[in-house]
Amino acid sequence: MKQYILGLAIASCTLSFTGCSDFLDTPVLGQQDLDGYFVNEDECKQQITGCYQTVFYDDWWQVQKFYLVGDMCTDDMWMGNTEQDASAYEDLAFYTGIATAGGECCQNFWQYRYKGILRCNIAIERIPAVEFADAALRDRYVGEAKFLRAFQYFDLVKNFGGMPLVMGMKMPAEIEGIQRASVPEVYAKIEDDLKDAIEVLPLKSEYGSADLGRATKGAAQGMLAKVYLYQEKYEEAEDLLQRVIGRNNYPSQGYELLKDFGNVWSIAYNNSEESLFEVQTSSDISYNLGLRMPVVCGSRDDSGWAWGLPTSDLENAFKNAGDEIRLQWTIIRDGATSVPGDSYWTASNKYTVSTAKHKSGRVTRKVYIPHAERSSSYDAAHNPLNYRILRYADVLLMYAEVENALSKDEEARWALNKVRNRVSLADVTASGTELRDAIRQERRLELALENQRLYDIRRWKNESGKAVICDIMGPNGSFVKYNKEMKDEYERNNQKESSDKGRNFDESRDLLFPIPTTEITQTNGSIVQNPGYK
């Protein structure tokens, strides 16, 4: 039984990464007897490497697929592919309210997040007992595991609400009859882990090049600030964000916005000064450790699968804001004679997103790989574009939101305009509610298609205290009304994916996803379903 538990915790292969951070160039062992493991520093390092692997795993269906679904549930993204079966996404994206709606998508995400938590639990419990030449390194490894465990629980609680809390190495019999902890209880554990991590993790500048990509003090502070923000704990979030940014007499940690927005999602700028935390990838064709999204989200006329296509509503949001720079680096349109950063497309070789195959004549530029940078087997997971989890622009916009909520509008404008100035947009001079709305709009444009929008519109409140998503989705929602007019030719002409997305949204149900039914069945009902799912 001990071997079974460790078998979940450590991958059954030896991983060797190239083209990404050297710290991942560490063997991850197969099944081991737990009593004979964790006897030296090397084995502890291997376990921590295994913990990092669980952020995205080695394919797209465990986690990346679910991240796409999050954006599909908003006004920014269609399912997109109208030639293949979309059932894995449809019930969630169209808010049908069926308990099995999440299907394998929710089930895989839930299962693999808990597998990641288990790996972290083992590291947290076993590493402190190992003798290290440098105790600070041992403490750092535990801090990294706590950061990663907190990240995975945060991913779960914001999607499903209260979660079963498994904080140690548990045998199957020990979790029999386990129930969901409340949302505040889950957040409290996340906060504890991140506070512990902050105490022992180095600054990004204190890591050597071989450790690039590891969790840092700034990453833990930024993540904890977001956890506080989601709970409207503005004072707590403010202090952490000031520490990351270097405001209020705190020293700078070295984070900066990249000069050009177009470089943010570029292979050449993996682990840049704008990055607080990102998923490390590899181009080594011996393994499936590249980012899948460039292919998954690409045009079917350009070797892609066409899942997760931008909406015309999102495109119009950029146009209405006069935001040409971010528009061209976020959305590629059918018929484009040029794609920024890729000279392959010309007036005689136009980019194609054919109407018959795609709900929208658009694909995302953010995870697009220029032809000259594509791996030799582009349709496989070998593209070394790191996935940005938390970046400095997000930190600045969180700070703007927090300062506005605390009636410190001058400081809020400073942070907001720092992001806007990068893309040559005029300073915002508004205050109060008008400034709040400008910050919210800026988050939509800056962080478009980065798995942020759904959680923002779920947590933001309108003037009546309801979630902002209620103004967007539902029979009278702005996105639903917009699509009734069907002004966009691509979205109007291809009804293989219906344009009535969001019509069935129910506020009492759809602020959370359904709990996977297999989890309810396997626990004999001790884990209960979220309200409203049938």
From TrEMBL:
Residues 64-229 form the SusD-like N-terminal domain. Keywords: Cell outer membrane, Membrane, Signal. The keyword Disulfide bond does not apply. It comes from the Bacteria. Transmembrane segments: none annotated. Residues 276-533 form the RagB/SusD domain. One of its GO terms (cellular component) is cell outer membrane. This is RagB/SusD family nutrient uptake outer membrane protein. It comes from Bacteroides faecium.
